[in-house]
Amino acid sequence: MAQKKYLQAKLTKFLREDRIQLWKPPYTDENKEVGLALKDLAKKYSDKLECCENEVEKIMEEIRCKAIERGTGNENYKRTGIATIEVFLPARLKKGRKNLLETRLNIPGRELRSRIAKTFGFQENYIKIFINKKQLQLGETLKDQGVTHNVKAMVLELQQPEEDMRKNVQVEEEEQNEAKLKEKKIERTKRGLEILAERAEMVVDPETTPYLDIANQTGRSIRIPPSQRKALVLAMGYHEKGRAFLKRKEYGIALPCLLDADRYFCECCPELLDTVDNYAVLQLDIVWCYFRLGQLECLDDAEKKLNLAQKCFKNCYGENHQRLVHIKGNCGKEKILFLRLYLLQGIRNYLSGNGEEAFEYLNKAQQLFKELYIDPTKVDNLLQLGFTAQEARLGLRACDGNVDHAAAHITNRKEELDQIKKEEREKKKRRLENINTLKEMGYSTHAAKQALHQASGNLDEALKILLSNPQMCWLNDSDPQTNNHQESPSQESIDQLVYMGFDTVAAEAALRVFRGNVQLASQTLAHNGGSLPPDLQLSADDSSSTPSTSPSDSAGTSSASTDEDMETEAVNEILEDIPEHEEDYLDSTLEDEEILIAEYLSYVENIKSATKKN
């Protein structure tokens, strides 16, 4: 299959260079049948490529027929508005995987899915359609989703049918149940990540409540603007879940997670992405996933993604990995990423008909493979010392295969990470304590968090910020204890402030602004010489008209408990797939890569041999 794609790409290049249009005479007659001149052209190109003439002629006829189909489709689209979609079917199907389907663009996605299912023999509810790297939305029209004439649509199955299509009822039911479970798994993934992302914005006890945090290459938490944090947590969460499916070779479920991760990463500012290598790794994973699905043709920007990955690695690691070596002391483990990058660049170039470029990248990948290959006996030696296989591989690659150095490296790194984790936990506990201290003073959780963020965690500075900016007190959250709204302050509260020496009118105005909170009112009056600042005086009258609110009645116990159980289950599923080792994404046995490097190098070597003969 790969060799055929190379030949197709090469012949297409020849035709373009020679400005030959196969859909016109003398290669196509007036009845759109093949002309005799095609055979002569096939002979010319087969001699040039040192290939079988019949094979070249057959592929050129496929190119000719496709060109005629495209031309007919273009004319039909101009005349009727009916678009042609190129449908790429799953690899398991023996028939041609590229098929044309005509449709109007004003129909909803659900109708297109139904037509694809009926036309190609799928069960409608157990397929997903991807167009332009986005999952087809069933309720929106094709036009609203950016679907155009001659677009490529990829079909993914949520089940893997057996070759024997005459299944009995029991087997069909089992497969339907399996597909439903996979669909639910995708939904739970989405919900679990949303919960964890929300917790990243909340104040939670790190000892009791699981949540996701973002760390740099040393393992320390990164300060991220609140506007960017949720998107980044969701992006990295979806990426980790997608990687977990990749490891299990569940590529059909992995792809939606990876594409969602890409979507959320695009919401983050470029400067933020330069601090972590996750975005670059994601680009590799997306291209790898399409390749393993056998659908690399559907990824029109594969080259762009690989170039983007290379650029991100350079920004993150520095020129010649200088920044990485400065931070971590070595770059041996990260070379795994460059091996995968060069391998994919080699494969993409080969499938595009670029033999020389393919050889260059594949040769780079092979050289890195030799450098990163690990002697199994060395891994066994480290296993006997109590280390895991993953720790052994990572340690040996970081230390150029030296067992003693690897053992010391693993031990030192574990101790360093344990210390960092301890410091991070203590930092989070201090932050939680500081927020609670400010809440006890009457400030809302939101206001406390914002002030501490501006003060870089310093409690005294945060209090000064709040006192200097009393309008921040209006940053309310959903905590009913901090939203103690009152229509008018009680006489008892006014008397308290008067007893402290404040004017009655000022005291009442302050209590109206701060909705009866004596502590906030007294602090603000004291900080401003016994009166409210001008901007708060303007709103004192408005606050009196604020309707009183009270916490709503809680939902039924049974329903709340069920929802909580479902959320716990969703979160636990995410956490199960978050690797314990922070460098899990750098670990690989390289078994798949070894096979692919050898396979595609053999294809390229055949090309080079044929060239030498010429």
What does the model show?
With 614 residues, this protein is mainly alpha-helical. The protein has 25 helices and five strands. A five-stranded mixed beta sheet has the order 2-1-5-3-4, sandwiched between helices. Helix 13 runs antiparallel to helix 25 and helix 15 crosses helix 16. The longest helix has 38 residues. It is globular. The two termini are 25 Å apart. About 7% of the residues have low confidence.
Output mean pLDDT: 81
Q: Tell me the total number of β-strands.
A: 5
Q: Can you summarize the main beta sheet?
A: 5 strands, mixed
How many helices? The count is 25
Sum up the overall morphology in one term.
globular
Please report which band the strand proportion falls in: under 5%, 5-15%, 15-25%, 25-35%, 35-45% or over 45%.
under 5%
- How far apart, in Å, are the first and last alpha carbons? 25 Å
Strand arrangement within the widest β-sheet reads 2-1-5-3-4
Question: N-to-C SSE series?
Answer: HHHEEHEEEHHHHHHHHHHHHHHHHHHHHH
Structural class: mainly alpha
